[in-house]
Amino acid sequence: MTARSALGTARPGSPDLLRSVFRRHAAGVAVVTARGGAGPVGFTATSLTSVSAEPPLVSFGISTGSSSWPTVAEAGHVGVHILGEHQRELAGTFARSGADRFGAPTGWHEGPEGVPVLDGVLAWLVCRVVTLIPAGDHRIVVAEAAVGDSSVEGLPLVHHQGRFTGLRD
């Protein structure tokens, strides 16, 4: 077998190639929320990463074209919510442009630092925004965990091949 046949058909780097490759990457599903002057904002994120244990840092990406971006850019704190496999509809609501993300049936309450905290999630954090890093048409937000809860049992929601799904054995 030659190296060329083992690699398949190589294509130049492009947005389409990146999307195609990452459709094959299973990722956990989180919702990020923030408090804004016009009300709460939030979006579905599959780019959540644990950065450091000491101090406890996380990161996520957000498009500068996102309706949530202006609020997140100014927020001192954000909420990070890990969704369970029972929350496919919630993930879809926060992923859909123009959706009333905090209207019924979304359950939420004002949490620490005034950050919207979603009900029924597997785990949540309220994090202090540490820095925003430019990265193409996105910003990488690095935030330090201030308070949270991880006491709910359940299996996580994952994103794979363009859809929300559960884990399989």
Corresponding CATH superfamily: Electron Transport, Fmn-binding Protein, Chain A
Looking at the overall shape, the CATH architecture is Roll
Broad shape: globular
Percent of residues in helices: 10-25%
Terminal-residue CA separation = 32 Å
By secondary-structure content and strand pairing, the structural class works out as: alpha+beta
Spans with pLDDT under 50 lasting ≥5 residues?
none
Number of helices: 4
CATH C-level class is Mainly Beta
Compute the gyration radius: what is it?
17 Å
Q: How many structural domains in the coordinates?
A: 1
Order of H and E elements: HHEEEEEHEHEEEEEE
General description of the model:
- It comes from Streptomyces griseoaurantiacus.
- The protein is an alpha+beta fold.
- It has a single domain (12-160), classed as Electron Transport, Fmn-binding Protein, Chain A (Pnp Oxidase, Chain A, Roll).
- The protein contains four helices and twelve strands, in the order H-H-E-E-E-E-E-H-E-H-E-E-E-E-E-E.
- The strands form three sheets. It has a seven-stranded antiparallel beta sheet with strand order 3-2-6-9-10-5-4. Strands 1-11-12 form a three-stranded antiparallel beta sheet, covered by helices on one side. A two-stranded antiparallel ribbon has the order 7-8.
- Strand 2 (30-36) and strand 3 (39-45) form a beta hairpin.
- The mean pLDDT is 93.
Summarize the structure.
This protein has 169 residues and is of the alpha+beta class. It has helices at residues 3-7, 15-23, 69-74, 88-95, and strands spanning 27-28, 30-36, 39-45, 49-52, 57-63, 77-82, 108-110, 116-118, 123-135, 138-149, 158-160, 163-165. The chain has a seven-stranded antiparallel sheet. A three-stranded antiparallel sheet has the order 1-11-12, covered by helices on one side. Strands 7-8 form a two-stranded antiparallel sheet.
